[in-house]
Design brief:
single chain; 391 residues
Amino acid sequence: MNGPGPRLPPILRPAAAAAALLALLLPALGLPAGGANDPAPPPPADPSGRVRFDHARHAAHQPDCSACHRPTPPETAPGAATPAPDFERPREADCTGCHPFERPAPGPRTATADPEVCALCHPVDAAGRLALPAVAPRFPALAFDHRRHEDAAGAPCTACHDPARIAGGVPPPMTRCMTCHDDALEGGCARCHLHDARGRLTLRRPGRPELRPPAWMGDLAHVEDFARQHGVPARTRRDVCASCHEPSFCEGCHLGEAIERRFHPAGWLSAHGPASRGADLDCNTCHRGQETCLSCHRRAGLTLDSPRLGRDVPRGSSVHGESWALRPELHAREARRNLGSCVSCHTGRDCVTCHAVVRPHGPDWNQRCSGLLATSPQTCAACHTRRPDCR
């Protein structure tokens, strides 16, 4: 008769008893117990790589997600959006409520003494040592309250979270949020996404891909050729663009060298007149200040103060034709309709030449001039030496 086998150290006896009890309970739960010739495969590691864990099996026995997943409020900079509490990774204390164990004495963190103690839940390397990768904080890149959503909607976690995606560490897609928040885009991106005190979104965070508009957002999606196709959303959805981009981001291309080859089509300088008159504000997006137009138009001999006048451009020649300035349906109407086109060639001195001796204002102007005086007093000062009497 063989003698008794080696006795387990006291610290390992609870783990051995737990393993034996687990072997008895698995068949009762309808789960494979495994054997020497047919070992059960270990559960896959969770997305952090630190725990061997089967989420579906646990969820079947504990449908209340908050039993394991509890919020951990993060710290944020003053004025910035507060990220959602981290519900993603339960702590060890959340596990020991159902899976109690006796922790080994303080010392090197290895699993070589008995893999059943640590390796039952944690991965180990070939030498039997614990192999726990470093994990960065994984706060969701959103500013919202899980508990508030749960209470307001009265729905279980699975209303937003797909169990299959949870097992892979994949958060709900944005389209799932739009099921209830169908007006979210109109409220601006900073309504949900993390942002700084200026309202600019936080695009890059450790361990996460760069935040970009998804493909289902149509012309806002940053697809491969977006740099050449972004004109329409840039004109119609500037508020959305400004959620991520500073104005200087646009100037990096639109104010660069030889931009007509990168932004405007070939021959743009010769054909830009009609487009500039029909889309004056679009020009001002990149071309700011009167000097942008004047500097080129002077060289072309189009302005009244061009050095080319009288030399290689005959004096008296005009792009407007005869009687332009004297006919109110021409000069006066165009000046009121699109003054931005006028100032691309004319300075205030050109206007004063005539208007200093001819009253340009209509009847009852004193009752209507306060708005112009408040917004552009320099326009009035071109003719008036005293402050106009506006009521």
